[in-house]
């Protein structure tokens, strides 16, 4: 069989009784005109679904299916009510959660504002105390001379440093004073024991 015969539909389809393409198109056009357009629009409006105009039996079957579905939905309202109750409880819980989050956020913002204010006040107090320390050192130098700070064991540069740790310095100074007091007490005990 030649390629041209296959393309022309030669012997390949010769044994089959196939209708002509023109007859298929004419039959389709005549069958679509059997149902008037008004009926199609009314069915479309009433059922909310498109209905095949060519077969009226399928449209009646679809109507029966729709009726069964509507009956089935009228039988199951408890499921719908339960679902609605669940959704309502879920909405209420979500609302409560949003309110708690909003309150928590407001409290957090208030706490941040309070801490910011407190921090600013402490920085102002620290600056004031540093200025006071420098002022007192200046007074000490004026009253006792330029070497007064060295004799007192105070270094001016420590206090002028903004990162200086006053608490550690104070704790260190107290520990040194306690050590010296303990050493003096031990020396006085030794002196008394030597006398005896």
If you had to describe this structure to a student in words, what would you say it looks like?
Helix content is 80%, strand content 0%. The protein is mainly alpha-helical and 196 residues long. The protein has two domains: 19-75, no CATH class; 79-179. It starts with a helix and ends with a helix. Residues 48-55 have low confidence and may be disordered. Pfam families: bZIP_1. Keywords: Coiled coil, DNA-binding, Nucleus, Transcription, Transcription regulation. Residues 48-80, 175-196 are annotated as: Disordered.
Short description:
The protein is mainly α and 196 residues long. The chain has two domains: 19-75, no CATH class; 79-179. The chain is built from eight helices and no strands.
Total number of helices:
8
Number of strands: 0
What is the SS-derived class? mainly alpha
How many angstroms separate the termini?
143 Å
Unreliable residue runs: 48-55
Q: Which percent range fits the helix content?
A: over 70%
Mean pLDDT: 71
- The helix/strand order is HHHHHHHH
Largest beta-sheet details = none
Number of domains: 2
Categorize the overall geometry: elongated
Strand content: under 5%
Radius of gyration: 51 Å
Subcellular location: Nucleus
Keywords: Coiled coil, DNA-binding, Nucleus, Transcription, Transcription regulation
InterPro entries: bZIP, bZIP_sf, bZIP_transcription_factors, Leuzip_Jun
Organism: Monosiga brevicollis (Choanoflagellate)
């Amino acid at each position: 069989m030649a390629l041209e015969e296959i393309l022309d539909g030669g012997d390949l389809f010769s044994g089959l009784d196939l209708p002509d393409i023109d007859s298929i198109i004419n039959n389709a056009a005549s069958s679509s005109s059997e149902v008037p357009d008004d009926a199609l629009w009314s069915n479309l409006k009433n059922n909310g679904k498109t209905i095949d105009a060519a077969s009226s039996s399928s449209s009646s079957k679809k109507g029966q299916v729709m009726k069964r579905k509507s009956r089935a939905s009228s039988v199951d309202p408890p499921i719908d009510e339960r679902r609605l109750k669940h959704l309502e409880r879920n909405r209420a819980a979500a609302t409560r959660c949003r309110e708690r989050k909003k309150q928590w956020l407001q409290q957090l913002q208030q706490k941040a504002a309070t801490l910011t204010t407190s921090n600013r006040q402490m920085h102002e107090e620290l600056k004031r105390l540093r200025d006071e320390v420098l002022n007192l050192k200046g007074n000490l130098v004026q009253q006792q001379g330029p070497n007064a700070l060295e004799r007192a064991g105070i270094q001016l540069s420590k206090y002028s440093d903004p990162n200086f740790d006053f608490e550690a310095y104070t704790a260190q100074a107290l520990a040194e004073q306690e050590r010296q007091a303990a050493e003096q007490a031990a020396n006085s005990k030794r002196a008394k024991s030597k006398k005896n």
